[in-house]
Amino acid sequence: MTKLRFFSCLLAAAAVLSPDVGLAQADETQLRIIVIGAHPDDPEKVGGTMAKFIEQGHKVRLVSLTNGNAGHFEMGGGPLAQRRYQETQCAGRVIGAEYVVLDNDDGKLMPTLENREEVIRQIREFRADIVISPRPNDYHPDHRNTALLVRDAAYMVTVPNIVASVPHLMTNPIFMYMSDRFTEPTPFVPDIVVAIDDVIEKKIDMYHCHESQMYEWLPYNRGVLDAVPSDPSERREWLAEVRGFRSSRPGETYRELLIQLYGQQQGSQVKQAEAFQVSEYGSQPSLEELKRLFPFFN
């Protein structure tokens, strides 16, 4: 029995698993995507793509492996953890996603066997087709250890005698990384990019839910707390500007691949996009399989 406590109820272990590659659940028309981050507000990095999945009728679970109880300068511990949990539920409601928060201390996440088994349990119970996480090279130890935990869960989710209380997956999901700017030991290399201009306001709203981070802790940590507007509507627009949601930089960064996926006319006009790299530790899809699993391209 795991010692981890949940802030939200888990879905019950589900029924018969399909052996089809890339579709772990019995309903082949509905995809199941789980995004595993280190902190409340980490899964939001791919919130635009998750909003698009949900709009098409697919299922999304967002998971934070820590409770975020250290990310502030005036509060901490249980009160901050509770506040951040409420912020995750607000963000999940914006796009209609389930948001699970595990009760590990912020800044102290370790790649232990217990935590690995909890990640395996999350992936199995959700019957994920796609698993998304940070890459192992990142500035924050919690981010790095989240990536290690997810990487070490890959393949093990298919082994019946590991976490035997939860039915194993017949097919290994596709494990994917969120984009990042880090280059050591290797840079991020996108395998697929999703245009999110049509859902960018939802992504902004998800981040807007995280008031303790977007308008308090992160500005304080970066020395710009005085620049945060007090008016809620002005805050939201300030947030959109400082996080680059009003710029075309993401589109320019991935322009070549966007044109390849969307065609010249549409791909050349994309401003906001989210990119993903396939991990070599899960199933290895072709580009055509990726386009099937990311059903946003003409």
Structure overview:
This protein is α/β, with parallel strands linked by helices. The chain has one domain (about 30-275): 3-Layer(aba) Sandwich (Rossmann fold). Helices cover about 35% and strands about 10% of the residues. The protein has helices at about 45-55, 75-95, 115-125, 140-155, 200-210, 210-220, 230-240, 250-255, 255-260, 265, 285-295, and strands at about 30-35, 60-65, 100, 130-135, 175-180, 190-195, 275-280. Helix 1 links the parallel strand 1 and strand 2. Helix 2 (about 75-95) runs antiparallel to helix 5 (about 200-210). It starts with about 30 loop residues before the first strand and ends in a 5-residue tail after the last helix. The model is unreliable at about 1-20 (pLDDT under 50).
Chart the SSEs and their pairings.
Layout: E1 32-37, H1 47-55, E2 59-64, H2 77-95, E3 98-101, H3 113-126, E4 130-133, H4 141-153, E5 174-178, E6 192-195, H5 200-209, H6 211-221, H7 232-242, H8 249-253, H9 255-262, H10 264-267, E7 273-278, H11 287-293
Parallel strand pairs: 1-2, 1-4, 2-3, 4-5
Antiparallel strand pairs: 5-7, 6-7
Strands of the widest sheet, in order across it, are 3-2-1-4-5-7-6
Mean of residue pLDDT values: 92
CATH superfamily: LmbE-like
Q: Tell me the number of strands.
A: 7
Number of helices: 11
CATH class: Alpha Beta
Q: What pattern of helices and strands is seen along the backbone?
A: EHEHEHEHEEHHHHHHEH
Radius of gyration (Å): 19 Å
The computed structural class is: alpha/beta
The proportion of strand residues reads 5-15%
